[in-house]
Each structure stands twice: as C-alpha cells, then as structure tokens.
Amino acid sequence: MLEVRERVRWGDCDATGIIYYGAYIRLFQVAEEELLRACGLPFAELRQSRNVWIPRKAMHMEFHSPAQLDEEVAVTAYFTKVGVSSITMQFEVYRASDRKHRASGTLTVVNVDKPSMTKRPLPDEVRAMLSLYAR
C-alpha cells in the first residue's frame, strides 16, 4: 500500500468550504500516479517506452465525512486486481491528523491499443511490476 499526503485546495471546495465530490478524483489521480511511480512505472514511461494506454473504465466513490478547506489528507492506494488487460485500484482518504475516514473509492482502467482503442493484454513485465502493490 502506498500513501500520499495532499492538501484540500480552494479550487477543491464548494461555497460551504467543504471538498466538492469531484475533487476526490484529483486526489485519486495523484495517488494513482505515485502508486505507478512506486512500481517503477511513471505515466510517461508507460506511454512512451512501454506503449501502455490505460483509459478509465469504471469508478466508484463513497463519502464518509466531508474534508475541509486547507485540511491535509492522507490518500492510500493499492491494486486489488491486476488482470490480463485491466487494473483495479482501491483508494482511501483520511484526515491526516487523526485518520478520520473521509472517502473511499475504486478505479478500473483497461490497457488499450491506442489507434483502435480496443483492449489488449498488459505486458507480463508490467503485470509483475504492479504486483508489488497488490493486495
């Protein structure tokens, strides 16, 4: 499991000063990028060197308590499934100071052939590297 820290920004909040639900996608994206980097697979390398393209297929979010403006949050991420062509990630968001649960979510991405946008298998080496952070 990987954990990143991030602050709830002004642009993440609605008029009441609490995090807007769509801002959790940004937090998940930050954690996803760092999770892939920790596996030795930064996004730029996936695309340029390994020809791996992983558009989003499905996302689910559940909100437990609202994060506030300027609050530091801890976002944990890990892979729950590394399939033949798909990857599913789990995210948990906590208030960093006391681990109060803010939100959770899953994201599934699918490796595709870029020109045709049809799914294709992930390279075996990539699957092996992702397994470092799989549960």
SSE layout and pairings?
Blueprint: E1 2-7, H1 23-38, H2 43-48, E2 56-63, E3 72-82, E4 86-95, E5 101-110, E6 112-113, E7 118-119, H3 124-130
Antiparallel strand pairs: 1-3, 2-5, 3-4, 4-5, 6-7
Structure notes:
- The chain is α+β, with helices and mostly antiparallel strands.
- The protein has one domain (2-133): Hotdog Thioesterase (Thiol Ester Dehydrase, Chain A).
- It has three helices and seven strands; from the N terminus they run βααββββββα.
- The chain has helices at residues 23-38, 43-48, 124-130; strands at residues 2-7, 56-63, 72-82, 86-95, 101-110, 112-113, 118-119.
- A hairpin with a 3-residue loop joins β3 and β4 (86-95).
- The longest helix is centred in the N-terminal third of the chain and has 16 residues, at 23-38.
- The N and C termini lie close together (8 Å).
- The model has no long low-confidence stretch (mean pLDDT 96).
Classified by CATH, the class is Alpha Beta
What number of structural domains do the residues give? 1
Helical content band: 10-25%
The count of strands amounts to: 7
CATH architecture: Roll
Structure summary:
By secondary structure, the protein is an alpha+beta fold.
Keywords:
135 residues, alpha+beta, Thiol Ester Dehydrase, Chain A, 5-stranded antiparallel β-sheet, two-stranded antiparallel ribbon, 3 helices, 21% helix
